Known about the structure:
heterodimer, A: alpha+beta, Ubiquitin-like (UB roll), DNA polymerase, domain 1, five-stranded mixed β-sheet, globular, B: alpha+beta, Aldehyde Oxidoreductase, domain 4, seven-stranded mixed β-sheet, 18 helices, 30 strands, about 25% helix
Amino acid sequence: MQQLYISLTVNGDVHELNIEPRRTLMEILREDLELHGTHEGCGSGDCGACTVLLDNEPVPSCLVLAADADGRQVVTVEGLVQNGEPHAVQKAIVTHGGTQCGYCTPGIVISSVALLNENPHPNELEAREAIAGNLCRCTGYQKIVDAIVAVGRE
Amino acid sequence: MRSWRWDVNNYSVIGKRVPKLDALDKATGRAQYGHDLNLPGMLVGKILYANVPHARILNIDISRAEKVRGVKAVITGEHNPVHKFGYGADNTPLKADKVRSRRDEVAAVAAMDDDAANEALALIRVEYAELPPLYSAEAALAAGAPLVHEERANNLFLRYNYAHGDAERAFDDADEIVEEEYFLPYVTHAAMETSFALAVFDLQNRLTMWSTTQIPFLLQRDLSEALGMPGRDIRIIQPTIGGAFGRGLDVYPFEPICALLAKHSGKPVRLAFTRDEEFFATATRQPAHVKMRTGVKRDGTLWARDASVLLDAGAYISWGAVTPLVMMETTASLYRVPHAKFVADVVYSNNPPTGAMRGYGNPQSTFFVETQMDMLAEKLGMDPVEFRLKNANIPNSETPQGLKITSCGLRECITEVAERIGWERRSSVSSNQLSVVSNQSSVSSNQSPVSNPQSPIRRGIGIACTLNVGGGARIYRSDGCGATVKVDDFGRVTLISGSTEIGQGSETALAQIVAEVLGVRVDDVTVINSDTSVKPWDVGTHASRTTFIAGNAAWIAANQVREKILDHAAQMLNVSPNHLEMRDGMVRVQGDAAGKGIAYDKVVRAMHYREDGNVVSGTGWYDPPTKLVDKDTYKGNISAAYGFGAQAVEIEVDTETGQVRVLKIVAAHDVGRAINPMYVEGQIEGGAQMGVGYALSEELQVREGRILNPSLLDYRMPTALDMPPIESVIIETADPEGPFGAKGVGEMGGNPTAAAIANALYNAVGIRMNQLPMTGERVLRALKEKERMENGD
């Protein structure tokens, strides 16, 4: 199959890749770049487990063709750890008990970071709206919402 | 009864909100799940499903599939070992003679990539001679129905028949009786990580399988049966598991299929379900058709109960067939009721095979028991809270079913949630005191809602209770778990536990138990619990048992280590070991915080570096003092402790659309003692979320044996916006048998939610919904029907 040349900036690193045009951003992140923190929950944009920041916007990476990310900035859950220091949202999810099985957690962390970038002091309803596209089957969302609101109050 | 040497008011880590050991890895994307694994030369495994409901297989042609470039193995029923497997001993990895459901596995391929595997599947030709299908339990029991399994005399797999007292006659003496019929839907676990297996054989024919199972040692046994190979040659490794909820309680065909593909290709084979496969090819909760009546005395004493349940198990039987054991427990023992009868028929059909799911019969039975409690209270003119308190179980009693209730905080749970939800605001439906115009989701319990008869929005408050096993559940001959604790020269404590972490946080609770016993920090404890070749035996994660059972095993092992360290420290310090304690990383004389002490790791080093030295380790085994229920009467004390809970909810319903919205949940649960309150709340809140889904939105739509909504878009699980704020209240009753007094909590959070919502809906608009989920469409239909009846049409 014909290959397409793309250049992706992922967590600050530039990756030059030759890919099949049909491949998704999620596949490139997981398979080629081995960034396993981006999880596949459905492959059809319904669950949010694969959410990443694409030019600062949260997107389900399973619905984005890698070719459409050419020349753009991608941040995954791994990229939120700076100099060994986790992002405030990551720390709050940990201390508030906002992760159980953890499969949805990276997507929820990314959606929360996107919210806090736009709205540094969200209330509970705004926190719920921001993660409404991220399904969690374990927590009932309460502790995740508590964590997001707490970051805004720091 | 165990005497605690710990001061309950002075724990160092028990009762603390310690983050999960793996929380930081999970929040930063470092946790490694099965789906992340990659072995050199690993192939992709895929399964061909029949997609016909009931048929004889005439021929399977794999010749074209085998020729696809990159395909390394194509297998069919001819490659099956001879033995059948499963709880009903009725299943084979691939079906050789006939298929019994649309999801029956008929062939499988292993290939170098997805494309080759999919192309090969598309080229397999199967010829069927279709047989008449059975799409319901009722049809399957009809005279002359075709047989799903032809070696059986009929399609009834098993009848459960339980009774205490004399329910038949007791109804003659009842002052009020309610009788209702219920229809409960197919629902499914829908864990966020789909099912996964990775199998590889070495050249000595030994199998290693990475798996999302909850029962690694039983899987080892079940796979040995399914594959016809010795169990000792099978090693199960559990990577981080992205949720399970009962999904992994049995061996299912994809696991032996994955192993067979690895065997026939000579390569590692990865078999990961797609999301739609997860919906149609995992075992769901059984749909149930229930008839129940309950009789009560004028003074509010529960008097008699009689339930009959028809469960459609689908094409093959799993441990899910045992759920009537739990249903009868709720029916006969949630409250004191002197006469009870419970009959359940578990029936084969050509519908999708069903299995175990969180609560294991309890969300179903709690729904019909707890909605009837409200109906009876109304007939008696009693307050539903008062009626429940009157009949609630009490500590240190034995139910007629033989459940030995020791610690029991049910009454505290009921009063706590009633107070916190503002029960006094709940007035009778007819006065509509709770009607309110509201576009906001927040409710305040001390604020009386405004009455406005013109608004289409009505509010209601409801309550429901639950009883759940909390001290293991002896459904296998053993309910045991092993543990080993060792300490190294640097003070690193390692707990090797037989138990399985599926996300619930059990390994953190176990680390806290060990840390408390040894007086070390939780950070000093590593938990190893993921490899059958390393960890001691355990039944598996089910029945809310892990903190209680594995916790007691870890407690025993840690105490052995503690005694060894204290004995040696006593020699070093020249005092009696009885006067020493371990706390804050030190061994020192009790109560003498400033006095002479010695770091525990120094004691351990001294034990290693000497003549007659020894390894500093302990081994614990805990199997609770319980019995299998009697095989004829189903009576007996199945669990060493029982958990209790009550939930109160406030809802609003839009009478123009039928949509129900939950505004608030208050959930109080008696958990004995919360080893880690943060994750006890997590279990309660996550359970309540599944309960909200069961109540309002979740239903696998099965028509003619086919699942019509196999996606996370069409199978509606509650989102963060669908969930209300949840107020979790932990009731501590210090169970005498539990580790530090703890009882299990894993399942009960989801048991009473649907009933509480249904009771609140009745309170709001006066309709009784006996079919779940209570979707807008169904509620609207019921409202219209009520209106029609009231208008006398």
